Fold these 2 entries.
Entry 1:
Amino acid sequence: MTPTTAVATVCLSGTLDDKLTAAADAGFAGVEIFEPDLVASPLAPAAIRDRCADLGLSIDLYQPFRDLDSTSPDRFAANLGRLERKLEVMRQLGTDTLLVCSSVSPDAVPDPDLLAGQLHTAAGRAADHGIRIAYEALAWGAHVNTYEASWDVVARAGHPALGLCLDSFHILSRGSDPAGIRDIPGEKLLFLQLADAPHLDMDVLQWSRHHRLFPGQGAWDLSAFLTHVLAAGYRGPLSLEVFNDVFRQADPGRTAIDAHRSLLALRDATARRAHVQSAGAVPAVPTGSVPTGVAFAEVAVDAESGPLIARALDGLGFTHTGHHRTKPVQLWTQGEARLLLNTGVTRPGGAISALGLHTADPGASAARAEALLAPVLPRTRGPAEADLAAIAAPDGTEVFFCGTGDDWLADFTPAAEAPDRPGAGVTRVDHIALTQPFDHYDEATLFYRAVLGLTPQPTAEYAAPFGLVRSRAFTDPAERVRIALSVTLLRRGDWAPPVASPQHIAFATDDIVATARAVRGRGAPLLAVPDNYYDDLDARLGPDPALLADLRELGIFYDRDADGAFLHCYTEILGGAVFFELVQRVGRYTGYGAPNAPVRMAAHRTARLALAQAGPDPAIRKLR
Ligand SMILES: O=C(O)c1ccc(O)c(O)c1
Ligand SMILES: [Mg+2]
């Protein structure tokens, strides 16, 4: 059987009505009503019930009821009075499950038998209204703060209207082993809340209230977790409960789609686990076809950036080999690297407009993307006439699924002016680096991982001249596709210049010193790197002196780890929003030279300021 999907209203921004509309539009079957959303709503509980019914949403849970138990008999009696009021609200709402979370109060009951007795009393009151209590251990609960402790108390209470609410955050944040959930009787598991989170070494309450993520966006294996819960016999909805400062202020319609995608992908991933499948589960999302290579990258150019970029590509050893039969698109090639310059699309704020990815089965890739709610693009704006399915990534970059045969190349006619001359050693695209809008970084993580089937690499964080940057790459198993996302961890202010967030395409070479020397000779606008960098590099990593001299001469950055080395250099920013990188990987180095990124950013600003001072061009001055 397939569990239904639900979302807690606390996940979404806006008023209760905004949230309910967004949840219904995104395809959720149910909601958890978070009490503060109800309290702030102009709708009476009965009207909320009607509204949800109109939207086709079930109300699966009302929450939270806090600090029920008390060592003071008077206070416990008062709490029962408060409970009666909420049970009446629930009767009007037409919902039958109340979440009671473990107490955080100084008067919380430490004795498990006394606590079980009070929960038993409360469950009796709830049962009189046909309501069940789902008891949840908050990770910071005063005495009950693990699922094991909450189950101990619920088992002691032994009331048929009392069971557990499991919340993956509280369980995984404390490092508890979720395998023990299998020993809890399924009928005692009344509700399941799912949240992912990044690894953070911080107070668990702050972590929970600000940094939760939708499954697949963080560091935890929610599919393994869910497998245990299903194995125990849980048959209720899969419900998201994500407290997150970014989602709390983002468009709720969009967040709800991201949220629903996370559950569809989680349900799919769980159904694909062999032992779950043997129990009759059927994956509900088409299998897809993981990308195996970069067919092309497309850059949107205008009258100003077009000639600059074309000149730079020429300097980098690329050849303008073709143009599209019907569209204003140039094809530039070198080795296996293909770059399209398109004057027919505008891309405010970003220069890379599209990626073409090789997949063994483009139809399957597109079908999976569509089932996971990715926006499918109308097939009118292909870079090629070939019937390529395309979807939009969260930042608007168009992703085309190209077969491995590169049929799309047939739509380009050879450029008459193509000179026959050797390249500069570029072999292929090494990676594509996309700076992400602040609000959509986590959504992008889920997109590249679940929709495209790429594997997330470790997250890097570094302090850069224009703010703290977080970055993470996504690759296929053979590392032929590498997409590196980065984001500043705080919203940018007015100070940060546009050079803080250009995108770039990195090209691979087997000999960067030779390539850099060749492209410099051809007039490529390579970025100058300050001497201080090389002095520090010498002190830190001490590369061979002859190599260091070459690096210094040519403006090549260097990084090294236990697996290998990384040598890379950059062009200046070309126009407003794009630059190129040349990279050489030595050994099994799989990173992106993150320690060098702040120096690169400062060097880009230095170059841009010098350009603005030298030239009268107001367009350039504006961009510095
Ligand atoms: O942060 C809280 O208070 C809170 C409330 C209800 C929950 O279900 C929860 O997991 C956390
Ligand atoms: Mg919870």
Entry 2:
Amino acid sequence: MSNVKVAVVFYSMGGTNYQLAKWAAEGATEAGAEVKVLKVQELAPDSVIEGNEGWKATVNATKDVPVATSADLEWADAIIFSTPTRFGVMASQMKQFIDLQGGLWANGKTINKVVSAMTSAQNPHGGQEATLLSLYTAMMHWGAIIATPGYSDPVVFGAGGNPYGTSVTVGQDGKMIEDVQAAVKYQAKRTVTVAEWVKKGNQ
Ligand SMILES: Cc1cc2nc3c(=O)[nH]c(=O)nc-3n(C[C@H](O)[C@H](O)[C@H](O)COP(=O)(O)O)c2cc1C
């Protein structure tokens, strides 16, 4: 049993990033961590969501998932983010959540959090790396320790070979094209391992 606490924080409109978050939670749990799966606050108006069956279904599927708070981040040793690619950057809902952490940041509470990120996009080259970099840029300001998969395990190649973090392509039908489950779980386990090293080194 590791003594690492992991917050898996996601935004999802069509369900993909919710699934990635659940797989990450499985991987982190298997690595012995204590895990919370948390969604970020929705910002889109109800009137827009109402007109989109897939979006409505995701809101319903995630209705019992708690909304992430600063207290959750303070609790966590490691944070795994999952966000759709939106015009080549993270979804605004995720950015809003990050922007709400100014108080945590100002009190030095984001320093040394071990972070890792995942994303999805409709196109194979639709901005996955740029999205992950957009998140990691904010993490550098946090003083967080970014733990990417790199090419540290063959499973990364099998999932499309994104060393920045696991990414998946979502078809027009909303289904994932590559099989990334093993890569997500690997990324989560690696994040737990790095968080263990950091925690131990800090004691
Ligand atoms: C406003 C908007 C912008 C998007 N921008 C991109 C993009 O830049 N590149 C891309 O490949 N897909 C883009 N997409 C598709 C989403 O990335 C895709 O639907 C998402 O990854 C699915 O994740 P989810 O099921 O968790 O919502 C965009 C979708 C929306 C609604």
